[in-house]
Design goal:
six-stranded parallel β-sheet
Length: 218
């Protein structure tokens, strides 16, 4: 009888499935810059990443301008979505997992509206059984709240669930939820901060994860 290495695969989105961080910073910067000092740069936006786009925008503009700026950001996100780059091998990975019947979930800090736009434009709408965005949690990663919600909904065994993400926040969320962690190193993940949680797996390509699944099924 064939076995599966994991009963559930949870993915981070930006920096893991998509090379999008520069685009996101640029779009938020363009959405808020007319209401901010000229010294504000996309790098300042990047430094604020972690919570949802709304909460990032709240750091830079007055309260009554937050929603208009968020609307402008989402308009840029959709109209310029072709700037977002899918990492090589990711589309194949998702389609193979779907074909194998391995449940997948998303745990991301970005807004649900942005997630919905991306999933529709990339034809990934049918891949993820559970999607937890920054709009669905009180605490961003590395807090395990999002992962725990997914586990509660799916009833997946923690020891047979893997969280694949590129950042220390993803590793911390996996550790906090008591699930296996795989670090996506096919983009530009950088070094994990000293003293941070370490992953059980490091993947330089999406195919390396598929290889683990294939070996388990033999």
């Amino acid at each position: 009888m064939k076995t599966k290495a994991f009963d559930l695969v949870i993915f981070d989105m930006d920096g893991t499935l998509l090379d999008s961080m520069g685009c996101l910073a640029d779009w938020i910067h363009r959405a808020v810059k007319e209401h901010c000092p000229p010294s504000l740069t996309p790098a300042d936006i990047t430094a604020a990443f972690g919570p949802t786009e709304r909460k990032i925008i709240e750091k830079f503009v007055a309260r009554d301008l937050v929603q208009p700026c968020l609307n402008a950001y989402h308009e840029l996100y959709e109209s310029e979505h072709n700037r977002i780059y899918i990492y090589p091998g990711i589309d194949l990975l998702l389609r193979e997992l779907h074909r194998k019947g391995i449940p997948m979930a998303l745990c991301t800090g970005k807004s649900r509206r942005a997630v919905e736009i991306s999933l529709e434009l990339m034809n990934w709408e049918d891949f993820f059984g559970e999607i937890i965005t920054g709009d669905d949690t009180k605490n961003p990663k590395p807090d395990p709240e999002g992962a725990n919600i997914i586990l509660e909904r799916t009833k997946a065994a923690r020891q047979r669930t893997i969280f694949i993400g590129d950042g220390s926040a993803d590793t911390g969320a996996a550790r906090g939820a008591g699930i296996v962690c795989g670090r996506a190193e096919w983009g530009e993940p950088g070094n994990l901060p000293e003293g941070s949680a370490q992953p059980e797996y490091r993947f330089s390509t999406p195919q390396e994860f598929l290889d683990i699944l294939d070996r388990a099924a033999k």
